[in-house]
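Quick illustration, no need to memorize.
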Amino acid sequence: MYVLTVQLSIKREQVEDFLRELSALRALIEREPDCLRFDVLQDAACPESIMLVEAWTSRDYFEQVQLKRPYYTPYLARVQPTWAKDRRMQHWHAIT
């Protein structure tokens, strides 16, 4: 299992717009058979701080197949202007 965490800092006045776009993307991603989990977390004390926790069958699948889905490019074009700073992505693997 491959886990990706994405930390996002959203401009305060654009949090609702960002979450609306993310909700539409999430609906598409959750239909993907290799998506094991897709959680969206929002800091209770700082609502413009968002964390995504995604679990996939493998990193190869995520990078070679999932990231090439046609919905990613338009989604990123719409949400990048809402970011207060660059996203921080971390890659994890399960230790068994």
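The radius of gyration is 13 Å.
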